[in-house]
Amino acid sequence: MRKAIEDELKQPQPLFIDGKAYVPNHGELIDVVNPATESILCQVHAATENEVNLAVQAARRAFEDSTWKGMNPSAREKILLRIADLLEQNAERLGTIETLNNGKTIREGIGDVEPSADAFRYYAGWTRKIYGETIPVDGGNFVYTLKEPVGVCGQIVPWNYPLLMAAWKVAPALACGCTIVLKPSEWTPLTALELAKITKEAGLPDGVLNVVPGYGSVAGEALSRHMDVDKIAFTGSIRTARLLLKASAESNLKKVSLELGGKSPLLVFDDADIDGAVQAAMAGSFANKGEVCSASTRLLVQSSIKDKLLDKLTSRCEQMKVGDPFDTNNHMGALVSKAQYEKVRSYIEKGKTEGARLITSEAKQNSMPDKGYYLRPAIFDEVKSHMSIAQEEIFGPVLSVLEFADEAAAIQIANGTSYGLVSAIFTKDISRAHRLAKEIKAGVVWINRWNGFDSAAPFGGNKQSGWGRELGKNALDLYTTDKCVWVNI
Ligand code: NAD
């Protein structure tokens, strides 16, 4: 499978516009790198402003001619269900492409497909359940609301979960009757292009989903400033989010929803199930190489159990094998790019100079090839809240351990960053768990677990972690607008 895919990728990959492969005539290509080998995996045609215009025109035509929003809801449901089925049938192919392109382990690459398919299956169910309400008002009036699709949506996604982040955006937008121009990250454009082909095979009308790989500063910028785009849905960094808001303000005031980063706390109290907490911290910090917006990057531990917990955690961490993502003996693959690798390394150096204590080994493991952006997971003890490794999102396998004495101190540290994405509390005291769930400023609170995700449960952040919620019925609000109709009776 892998060899066949690598052979297929020898041709530069086209964009997907108006239901067809599209090759721009400017000839500009993006080199897509395999981070596990540092070699060029393939080239992808780069969308410039011209191609973004073509894609938006196709999406506008498909929106206005009503082939999608006017299709019977049960027919739209069937298409979304077919997309889910096709994703699952192509799981090995999609997972292989994701691993080649992103560096995550093949287990993780294939593992991303099931929740992506589930998003389509979940939102398929909504196609027949999106409706307004009747409203009792004074006077002789009959008043009702219509839930209408917001229009042409620009969707801009990052490189850490290329297929899954696209699915979280495309599935609800389609369920609501919107049309889409999707811009994947220039580092990881391949599975978004695969998704486009799958939607075509499933029967999605031409122009409803267009995919334009390209640089953020070119294709992303053109999309965010386009006068005929009604909405931008974004997952990525705060820096880009600010540019998108500015672009909206300076163009047509398009709606913007934002899923941004995090510096999420995992709180462990002295009555907690320590093994459960260690398991959660390992998965929360090092899954997907720590390139996870909802990573548990701050471990807050009550002083009396810190030594015991850290002993268990470091011994688990030292056993993690880093290396070739296609070797199923390895637990962690390669970081996504040279730039990301260097960024994470610079934070490790910063942690040391700021006075935190690195308690895991940095030595190269035998499993780590000479080429590739491989890094062992790192744990810092004696981290203080003011340090940059306690405040800034690193987006790599680096865990900062902070100590607290009591509940009040734990809340203060937990809430002491500019982020508010997710959080977790490990305790057997059910009253404390619920008390803290209210106190913590985050969009998600997990009690005695980490990483609870389900297509039905809303996900998103507070503070500088974003605006709006993806997944669940909440995501329908991002892609619909209410029209209020008054009838004088
Ligand atoms: P990024 O902001 O650099 O890039 C994200 C996307 O934005 C890419 O497609 C990129 O090409 C595009 N982009 C860049 N500049 C642009 C511009 N000027 N105009 C329009 N688009 C532009 O982020 P990244 O480094 O790719 O991703 C990492 C960030 O994403 C982290 O901060 C992480 O926490 C966040 N993230 C959040 C979630 C979530 O659900 N909250 C999920 C995954 C990643």
Summarize the structure.
The chain is built from 17 helices and 22 strands. It binds nicotinamide-adenine-dinucleotide.
Strand and helix layout:
Elements: H1 2-8, E1 15-17, E2 20-22, E3 29-34, E4 39-45, H2 49-64, H3 73-89, H4 91-102, H5 106-111, H6 113-126, E5 134-135, E6 141-149, E7 152-156, H7 162-175, E8 179-183, H8 190-201, E9 209-211, H9 216-225, E10 231-235, H10 238-250, E11 255-259, E12 265-268, H11 274-286, E13 298-302, H12 306-318, H13 338-353, E14 357-358, E15 378-381, H14 388-391, E16 398-404, H15 407-414, E17 419-420, E18 422-426, H16 430-439, E19 444-447, E20 462-463, E21 466-467, H17 474-479, E22 480-488
Parallel strand pairs: 7-8, 7-10, 8-9, 10-11, 12-13, 12-18, 13-16, 15-16, 18-19
Antiparallel strand pairs: 1-2, 3-4, 5-6, 6-22, 11-21, 14-15, 17-20
Helix pairs in contact: 2-9, 3-6, 3-8, 6-7, 11-12
Bound molecules: nicotinamide-adenine-dinucleotide.
The largest β sheet comes out as:
7 strands, mixed
Residue share in helix: 25-40%
Which small-molecule species are bound to the chains here? nicotinamide-adenine-dinucleotide
What structural category arises from helix and sheet content? alpha/beta
Roughly what fraction of the amino acids lie in strands?
Answer: 15-25%
How far do the termini sit from each other? Answer: 66 Å
Radius of gyration over all CA atoms, rounded: 23 Å
Total number of β-strand segments? Answer: 22
Question: Which of globular, elongated, flat, extended, rod-shaped describes the shape?
Answer: globular
Major sheet: arrangement of strands? 14-15-16-13-12-18-19
Mean of residue pLDDT? Answer: 98
Total helical segments: 17
Q: Spans of 5+ residues with little confidence (pLDDT < 50)?
A: none
